Amino acid sequence: MADFLVVFTAVLVVIGLGGLRIANQYARGVVFRLGRYQGTRGPGLYWIIPLIEWTRTIDMRISTAAVEEQETITKDNVPIKVNAVVWYRIVDPKEAVIEVKNIDTAVIQVALTTLRTGIGQHSLDEVLKEQEAVSSLIQQKIDAVTEPWGVKVVRVEMKNVEIPSSMQRAMAQEAEALREKRARLIKAQAEFEAAEQLRKASEIIMQSPAGLELRRMQMLTEVGAEQNTMTIVMMPSEFVTMAGNIAKLVKQPA
């Protein structure tokens, strides 16, 4: 009898220790009993019935999936090649185990198809200039598909957008034309402002002839300071008229 108790106790100890499981803080254990879902355990130490229950451990940390390069056509019929990165995590271990066989492969395949269709709904300019907004829309579409699987898509980023070389040259020519247009507009605006200032200055001088003479004297001072070999002196029109009258008087006979 004593031997039987010893053997029975040993069997219970073996069964008890054999059913112990440990789930890390970032993991959960999905327990099945005779093929039926029993519950989600963890983190920490938990126990299952040996030979009757078994468990599958699910990592709930954020995973990264690289979406291979996809060739697609934008809304304005430009062929481009795009690759992306998807960050996702499992938020419901039960659904992630029961609803889909290979969660990583499923997420990548959804991202592939959604990336192609998502890019096709935007023009090339939107894809190049508003990548964050386009990525956000693609993320929402992927998340809508993976939500029933217990997966949350955290972020989607396009790594590289490759456009045809002919389109690159056309975009470079367009950018150059825009820069030239901007430069001409700036130059025209500067000339307009200079002409406006000259017009105002001429109005002031017309109101005060003495101001014109002061400006002539100032100009002569500036020219002389530059040490030029030749200096042109602009005389007032009154002096020129007076000199002409004196010359006529001198030429008259006495």
Describe this protein's structure.
The chain is of the alpha+beta class and 254 residues long. Among the domains are: 2-58, no CATH class; 63-167, Tetrahydropterin Synthase, Chain A (2-Layer Sandwich). It is built from 8 helices and 8 strands. It has helices at 2-18, 93-98, 103-119, 124-129, 131-146, 165-207, 209-225, 237-251, and strands spanning 20-23, 27-33, 36-41, 44-47, 53-59, 63-73, 79-90, 151-162. The protein has a 3-stranded antiparallel sheet with strand order 3-2-5. Strands 6-7-8 form a 3-stranded antiparallel sheet.
Spatial strand sequence of the major β-sheet? 3-2-5
By DSSP, the count of extended strands is: 8
Shape: rod-shaped
Q: Give the uncertain stretches in residue-range form.
A: none
Mean pLDDT: 80
Span between termini: 172 Å
Helix content percent band:
40-55%
Helix and strand run: HEEEEEEEHHHHEHHH
Summarize the main sheet. Answer: 3 strands, antiparallel
Quick synopsis:
Among the domains are: 2-58, no CATH class; 63-167, 2-Layer Sandwich (Tetrahydropterin Synthase, Chain A), CATH 3.30.479.30. It is 54% helix and 25% strand.
